[in-house]
Model the fold of this input.
Amino acid sequence: MFELLVSKDRQSFTWQMFAGWQAGEQMPKTHENPIITKSGRMKYISWQNSDVRERGKIVGMISFGIDITEQKQRKALVERIRLTSFIRDISISLAEGVTLREILDQCAKAVVDYLDAAFARIWTLNEKENMLELQASAGIYTHIDGTYSRIPVGKFEIGRIARESKPYLTDSLVADEQISDKDWARRDGMVSFAGYPLIVEEHLVGVIAMFARKPLTEFISKALAAASDIIALGIDRKQSEEELRLSENKYRILIENLPQRIFFKNKDSTYVSCNEKYARDLKIHPDEIIGKTDFDFFPQALAEKYRTDDKRIMSMEKTMDIEEKYIKEGQELMVHTVKTPMKDDNGHIIGVLGVFWDITEKVALQMENIRSRHLASVGELAAGVAHEINNPITGIINCAQILINRSKKGSNEQDIANRIIKEGNRIATIVKILLDFARPHDKNEQKGAVHIAEILSDTLVLVATQLKKEHIKLVLHIPQKLPKILAHTQQVQQVFLNMISNARYALNEKYPGMHENKILEIRGEAIMSDNDPYVKMSFCDRGTGIPADILEKIMNPFFTTKPRGKGTGLGLSISQSIMRDHDGKLLIHSIEGEFTMVEVVLPAV
Done:
């Protein structure tokens, strides 16, 4: 089993664990291990192990594995965002701090805030005295005097890290022989410790350490290792002479290892330098940016906005956080930019330092969460209104039924009563569909096999009156025997509503009033793709169409052709995300001024 499934670098560890169990050691109840599938892909499996006993004797073992690959990927994304924020705060501290202690104090606070530390401390090396001097402390201890304010290199765990220039990590603080004050660790509930030497080009400049009341994770150790390199560079820069503080070569190591885009402009908003990542976006070498302006790389309106922001920041002499648009390879992104006015030694403004990173996906998720909260509020309101409506409707229907029972068969009274019951049931159906759509979606809810025609029917109940009011003719071609799909009904209904809403807008823009071509055609069909069955729903309108030069951009978050206030630019992006989650496709065909056809393709059960 191990030779078939386990990667070579993990086989010895797995065999060792299994051999230990055979020899009588306790097998871990749970453990995670990557496996190699038949196709060669790696998947992460969470194993649940239990012994098999006969007459009290262990004779075997059952292992039950759960695929946690997607969880790992989601966790990795969250950790990348968390790491980006952590490194960003460290970087801003290095850029904005005036004194070394101010810088390191902010760095220590970032370690506490982002890495779940009980407290964190940073020492710098006094080379003449071979002594580590405490510069910053954050968390439950903020004082920088006392026993550990000055530590000789080689003494205590901090001094040993400095002497050996190697990190030291432990999750058994009380039992660890390297830890000197075990009583304190036991009393304060400290579980783990991580200490890293701060090294620049094999030269020790200090030590950073953190204590925590929970075990260390791989993310924490990697993040602290990355931060230690950047903090070490910051200490080196602050302790060096003016040429080191201003030298581009000394900044380059810091800048090029950050995930953010970084640039520096002079007082005239002309570029002086940038890092490799920013230059790569602009498809140039970093040296080629010197003397260029934003007008050389961006549309005029966007370039003018950037220049206006630069002037305002330099005049106010204040760091500003800005969320703004950014064009990369023709794609419009949303970025978070931190711009800081730069001064010379005399306090005169010499330019603007900018750091920015892509937050397009984050903002899109935030907007979707806001929309979900709004839907939840609508759901609560709808539930209350439904209660108030359903009670009198039930009474009306019952009274109408009494009239039917007391009226002569075929009489006008009986006909009117039947109509009352029909319309009452129609109101009750609309209320139910509205409640189902407005209720908050449970992310843990499993997909179910549903008829796509029923989803469309419920959707049309919500919009049919509006279509009729706007003189839009609805033409349906939905076969009765379409196969079922495996889906979240509410999410697919959200996609359908968005397609119909976009078609309505295009038709009303082209035909403000009545017109024979003001038609929305919806067609359903069963198709095969790569030998797999699918159901395709086509939404076709003869409205304004989509210009060919923007057809590839309309799926991008926040891109919209509608006027301000008419659309958010998230509808198609969210719909595409829903299709990906359903292993489906969203295809758009359009000719400007003639038609638009959107195909929603979902796997059949």
Remarks:
- Residues 447-605 form a domain with the Heat Shock Protein 90 fold (CATH 3.30.565.10).
